Amino acid sequence: MTTLDRSQGCVLGLALGDAFGAPYEGGVLERFVWGMIGKTSDRKRRFTDDTQMMLDMMGVIVEHGELDLDAIATQFAQSYRWSRGYGPAAAKLLKKIKRGAHWNEVNRAVYKEGSLGNGGAMRAAPLALLFDDQSVLFDAAKQQARITHAHPLGQDGAGLIACATHMALKDMEPIAIVDELQVLDVQQEYHEALHHVREWLTASTLRTAQQIRISPGVGMTALESCMSALYMALSHFERDFESMMSLSWSCGGDADTISAMAGAIWGARHGHKKLPSSWLKELEGRAVLEALSGDLLNVTV
Ligand SMILES: [Mg+2]
Question: How many angstroms separate the alpha carbon of residue 257 from the centre of ligand 1?
Answer without folding.
Answer: 6
